[in-house]
Amino acid sequence: MSDTHALADLLAVMARLRDPETGCPWDVEQTFETIAPYTIEEAYEVEDAIRRGDPAEIKDELGDLLLQVVFHARMAEEAGLFDFNDVAASIRDKMIRRHPHVFGDASYANSTEQTQAWEEIKAAERKDTKGAESLLDDVPLGLPALKRAQKLQKRAATVGFDWPDAERVWDKVEEELAEVREAAASGDADKTAEEIGDLLFVIVNYARKLKLDAESSARDANAKFERRFRHIEQRLSEAGRKPEDTTLDEMEALWVEAKRLER
């Protein structure tokens, strides 16, 4: 195999893996549905590598993600649906179509105008190719909840269904927080869950208004919590102790220590 023809070689490797007689039994058994979770996982691993800032790791994770595309394309080819070349041609044509200012005669004064035109082109595509009845029809159900909330809000905003500024959204945050407290005080678990959902949704909206990505913020918060809790475990281990044998006040002191060390 040659690095010069690496993509063709990869396609050949996948074809061999999927061979019903001589291939890998696990690979042969897979379907679009069984592979989909791995595809999502690999996309997250690419982002994680980027956050770590390790070029070698980014390269490896991008390769893993590319394998997912090749896997899906191979299964589609076997079913007579499409092949990898069709996938590449589709995204090539889409990029040309969505960039008329680069590949055509269109002209935009700034990035805001270009973004608006991009959304208009996408809307026309949805109507022509997918027969979408609602502006929200093709926002993927499989997205993480916070990411999907932001996409729903952004899509609705394209037709003017949006708060005018972040301050108005913050007023709504305070309103929803009060409703969570009221529902929790009533002891109604279903109502409390509903109100917490409303609160999370409007917080996502607030982040969007500040041009922040709520999903990334949540992941950063998870990473920060994990980092600081690991510090607690490490410090207790050094003293021959375990978290379950430690008071909350003692663990809180170590949490504060972890925060101080991060500054």
Automatic annotation (TrEMBL):
Enzyme Commission code(s) on record: 3.6.1.9
Swiss-Prot/TrEMBL keywords: Hydrolase
Q: Cite the Pfam families for this sequence.
A: MazG (PF03819)
Q: Does the keyword Metal-binding apply?
A: no
Enumerate the GO terms in the molecular function aspect: nucleoside triphosphate diphosphatase activity
Pinpoint the NTP pyrophosphohydrolase MazG-like domain residues. 30-103, 172-231
This protein's name: Nucleoside triphosphate pyrophosphohydrolase
- Native organism is Hyphobacterium vulgare
